[in-house]
Automatic annotation (TrEMBL):
Name this polypeptide is given: Multifunctional fusion protein
GO MF assignments: protein-transporting ATPase activity
Top-rank taxon: Bacteria
Alphabetically ordered keywords of this record: Cell membrane, Membrane, Protein transport, Translocation, Transmembrane, Transmembrane helix, Transport
One Pfam family hit: SecD_SecF_C
Bilayer topology annotation: Multi-pass membrane protein
Protein purpose: Part of the Sec protein translocase complex. Interacts with the SecYEG preprotein conducting channel. SecDF uses the proton motive force (PMF) to complete protein translocation after the ATP-dependent function of SecA.
Family per record: Belongs to the SecD/SecF family. SecF subfamily.
């Protein structure tokens, strides 16, 4: 009774905590629904109604609810449920190293940095670790014996901790700490900028062990604005500017080079380079006035290896930079500037801004007034003194905002940026400068954008699949177990309440894969109850009273439940550790769900059941239709294992051949690239769209980039993938691709659709409803982490089975079955990815599915092994084969019920859960089916073959008695 009382108290306290955490979510949703009912689709009216309703409070006695506070505390929804933007920023660590070395020009340093840039593309090690590896290797190969504490490296005034005799290992630790601190500074700057964007419930986190920062902003729509705000370093630089007479001879040389070698420069030989420049139309201190449509061609020429080799001495280090935006007088062109560089490309003035504000010049044009810090002010004074009467370029992230002539020296660090700003653009710039500078440049290496309409559809489909799955479980478990099933359902409802409450209290984000994790948790809860009730039925059939049967049922089921839950939990831990984004959400909900299932389905359910039984009331554990199902079922599984071996061997060989010959369709998670889900107002043919786009996406050498268009969900929606400009992670590259997409799809869009509307389609509009970008370095990390995750899961499961069952034969059988299941799933994806009407890419979601299947399959295997272990103690006179057959046959009811209910649940998610989950759930369907099969015919069979001594007789009787009868004949 004491145990029962403690469990009741814990359940009540936990329930009250969850209720308190979930109330703000309920209240915020209630207010928003009221506002929507009044305002409809009018956003201005909606905001006014929200402001009006926000003044109300709800007094519940123990707490008061306000909308603004409730909104801050409500459960966080992921992008796939709410829409918004998620970006992964990477701080440029080469810039940080250059800064710490004072932009040294030491050749060993520069070679090591260049080599590190190459190695980093296919490495999971940190940039700085790779840099030190490359530096040591080059230093040793050249025999230079250069020390890291050398004044040309880290032994400078920047790093006062480094002395002339500081050992290399110590210098490495100091540099790593400095770089980690710089990334921490970048994190704080990014967080401040996000606050200025006005995002609701943003999630900003550092990625441990890397120079990456993850930023998630639900509800945000303007991806270009967000990327620009986050990537801008806010490091203002001031450069001397070269004029047309200095670069014109070089341009003439390039014109001749294009005519001779245009193909190797990425343009046609017929291209007239000088004609592209329109130097005669210049009205600024630039060197060319290029039409927007020709800027890509000019970039290809200037950045080509041919052009670099032809540079004369006076422009060897010149940087060609574009203007911030077109001039007001010529909106179709962009000015090209020649900025005087140097060997280390360090700007003459490179300081942060102490303050920035919007102002107006003498012609009432919008400008940005700035005050530089002390260091920048001194450098600015020197530069302006040196260049009176000459132009100086003001740049921000390699864009020229203005390049005026210096009239007088400026001694106080005050200056002004003009750039044909609108009021909004000036405010954005002031916000960026005001938030502080990043210690180095940043780039978006991964980005996901989900439109609000797609988010709402995901919520609707997720809830639909959730409700249907839950209804299926309720109906089935009550049908099969009668009164006991009702208690199982009550425990599951409480379990769900706890899961959502814990998610909310922990400030965790609920995603669509997270909902799938919760649904899978319900299947685990069913499995727990099935194990208990099947064991209770066995005790009842053995003639025990209802009270004794339930006591022994719970007692004997506990080991199997703990083993099964532990293996699934270990798999979820691996997923959480190696996964990213939504996969972490799936793993997190699964871990919370497994823990709560143990509490509700074992402890709380036991307390409720025995509270009833101790009052002398009965509790059925079957219905008339299910009472004797599987009761007397016995199958000679071991005797038939050779047929199973042949079947599995043939299937495995077919799968391996398909994998070797057909391969897979890899998602951009593993290859890098960009995905766009585009919605149309009428049916479209994927093949026709693909043909249109292939012609537009050509690389510098004139070859077509990979482009794939596939129907996604329905005939009015396509998923378009491309690796065009895969190495270019800049905002400009994103805009170029979106422009090309728009051009290629324009004829299929409603008349009058603009590029802006196309890029952020909402509700019933045609255009991009979601997009995803994965840089090649991130793709390598995801792929390698996926492999590590699978290997780690198999190793952990092998060790756990070995520890629990004390026989390596069981571990071998379990891992062999898991390998078998994984190969079958991989083979199915290799064979079918071209034919199925839904996404069958190999990506991180697929890895999650594989690991989840492994967790489920081992759970099933453990139940059988647990019964074998029990019979090894109790039925010593039975042959090993008979013992295995008895064990498998006696657990058939549990195997069928668990597999059947799980498959029904997964089918519900597969059919109603939305397009993004179909590939994931298909892998689960295959895995659950073959996981059940392999638990019996692979894991158990292999364990038997390695356990047998060769002396067993051939009697495969059902029981010891049967064997004795057969043996006496």
């Amino acid at each position: 009774m004491q145990g029962k009382g403690l469990i009741t108290i814990v359940a009540i306290v936990l329930g009250l905590i969850c209720l308190n955490e979930l109330l703000p979510t309920w209240y915020a949703s209630k207010i928003e629904k009221q506002a929507t009912a009044v305002a409809g689709d009018n956003p201005e009216k909606y905001q006014k109604e929200i402001a009006k309703l926000s003044k109300d409070t709800l007094n519940l006695g123990f707490t008061k609810l306000y909308y603004t506070k409730a909104q801050e505390k409500e459960m966080k929804l992921g992008l796939d449920l709410k829409g918004g933007i998620n970006v992964l920023l990477e701080i440029n660590q080469r810039d940080l190293v250059n800064d710490l070395t004072g932009y040294s020009t030491n050749p060993i340093l520069i070679e090591a940095l260049n080599k590190t840039d190459e190695v980093q593309k296919n490495s999971t090690k940190s940039y700085i670790d790779n840099f030190f590896d490359q530096f040591d290797a080059i230093n040793k190969a050249k025999g230079t014996n250069l020390k890291l504490a050398d004044p040309e490296l880290f032994g400078n005034t920047t790093l006062t901790e480094v002395k002339y005799n500081t050992p290399d290992d110590q210098v490495k630790n100091i540099v790593k700490r400095k770089i980690d601190a710089s990334v921490g500074t970048a994190f704080e700057v990014i967080r401040t900028r996000i606050d200025k964007l006005g995002a609701i419930q943003p999630n900003v986190q550092r990625v441990p062990g890397t120079a990456r920062i993850s930023v998630e902003m639900p509800g945000m729509k303007d991806i270009d604005k967000v990327k620009k705000m986050l990537q801008t370093s806010a490091k203002l630089q001031f450069w001397e500017v070269q004029q047309v007479p200095e670069v014109a001879p070089y341009f003439q040389t390039l014109t001749s080079a294009v005519a001779a070698k245009g193909d190797s420069m990425g343009v046609a030989k017929s291209t007239n380079f000088m004609n592209l420049l329109h130097i005669d139309k210049l009205r600024t201190n630039g060197v060319a006035n290029v039409k927007l449509s020709d800027t890509a061609a000019v970039n290809k020429i200037l950045n080509s290896k041919v052009a670099q080799s032809l540079r004369p001495a006076n422009i060897k280090y010149t940087q060609f930079m574009w203007g911030y935006k077109p001039e007001a007088a010529d909106a179709e062109s962009l000015v090209l500037y020649a900025v005087r560089g140097n060997i280390n490309q360090k700007a003459p003035v490179d300081g942060a801004v102490e303050s920035a504000s919007i102002g107006y010049d003498e012609l009432s044009r919008v400008v940005v007034d700035m005050q530089m810090d002390s260091k920048g002010a001194k450098e600015w004074k020197t530069l302006t003194e040196k260049n009176v009467g000459k132009p100086v370029a003001v740049t921000l992230d390699n864009r020229v905002y203005t390049a005026p002539n210096v009239v007088n020296a400026i001694p106080n660090g005050r200056t002004q940026i003009s750039g044909n700003f609108s009021q909004e653009e000036a405010k954005e710039l002031v916000d960026v400068l005001g938030a502080g500078k990043l210690p180095a440049g940043a780039k978006v290496v991964q980005a996901t954008v989900v439109g609000p309409s797609l988010g709402q559809e995901a919520i609707d489909s997720g809830l639909m699949s959730f409700i249907i799955a839950f209804a299926i479980i309720i109906v089935y478990i009550i049908f099969y177990y009668g009164g006991a099933g009702v208690y199982a359902v009550i425990a599951m409802i409480i379990n769900l309440f706890y899961i959502f409450g814990i998610m909310d209290s922990g400030d965790f984000t609920l995603t669509l894969p997270g909902i799938a994790g919760i649904v899978l948790t319900m299947a685990v809860a069913v499995d727990t109850n099935v194990i208990i009730y099947e064991r209770t039925k066995e005790e009842l059939f053995a003639g025990k009273s209802i009270l004794e049967a339930y006591k022994d049922g719970f007692k004997h089921a506990l080991n199997a439940i703990i083993d099964g839950h532990t293996t699934t939990f270990l798999t979820a831990v691996v997923l959480f550790f190696f996964g990213t984004g939504p996969i972490k959400g799936f793993a997190l909900t699964l871990m919370i769900g497994i823990a709560m299932t143990l509490f509700t389905s074992v402890l709380l359910s036991r307390a409720m059941i025995f509270s009833r039984l101790n009052k002398g009331k009965g509790l059925s554990v079957w219905t008339p239709a299910t009472k004797n199902l599987f009761r007397n079922t016995w199958i000679d599984f071991i005797g038939k294992r050779k047929y199973a071996y042949i079947f599995s061997a043939v299937l495995t060989i077919v799968c391996i051949i398909s994998i070797a010959t057909h391969g897979f369709k890899y998602g951009i998670d593993f290859t890098g690239g960009r995905n766009y889900v585009v919605r149309f107002d009428k049916n479209v043919k994927a093949e026709d769209i693909e043909d249109k786009l292939v012609a537009l996406f050509k690389t510098e050498d004139g070859k077509n980039s990979s482009v794939e268009a596939k129907t996604f969900g329905n005939e009015k929606q396509l998923k378009i993938s491309t690796d065009y400009l895969i190495e270019d992670e800049s905002l400009k590259a994103d805009q170029i691709i979106e422009q090309k997409l728009f051009e290629g799809l324009k004829s299929n869009l409603p008349a009058g659709t603009t590029l802006k509307e196309f890029k952020s389609a909402d509700k019933d509009q045609a255009g991009i409803v979601s997009s995803e970008k994965v840089g090649p370095s991130v793709a390598d990390d995801i792929q390698i982490h996926g492999i590590y995750a699978v290997v780690a899961a198999l190793a952990m499961i092998f060790i756990y089975i070995l520890v629990r069952f004390r026989k390596w034969q069981f571990s071998l059988g379990a891992v062999a079955a898991l390998f078998h299941d994984a190969v079958i799933i991989l083979g199915a994806y290799s064979l079918l990815h071209k034919y199925m009407p839904f996404n069958m890419e190999i990506n991180q979601d697929f890895v999650a599915a594989i690991l989840t299947v492994l967790g489920y399959s081992i759970n099933d295997t453990v139940i059988i092994f647990d019964r074998i272990r029990e019979y090894l103690r109790e039925k010593k006179s039975l042959t090993l084969a008979g013992l295995f057959d008895d064990s498998i046959s006696s657990t058939l009811g549990r195997t069928f019920n668990t597999s059947f209910t799980t498959i029904l649940v997964i089918l519900a998610i597969f059919i109603f859960g939305g397009d993004n989950l179909r590939g994931f759930m298909f892998a689960m369907l295959i895995g659950i089916g073959f996981g059940t099969y392999s638990s019996i015919f692979v894991a158990s069979a292999i364990a038997y073959d390695f356990l047998k001594t060769g002396k067993e007789d051939e009697v495969h009787g059902k029981t010891t008695t049967d064997r004795e009868v057969l043996a006496s004949k």
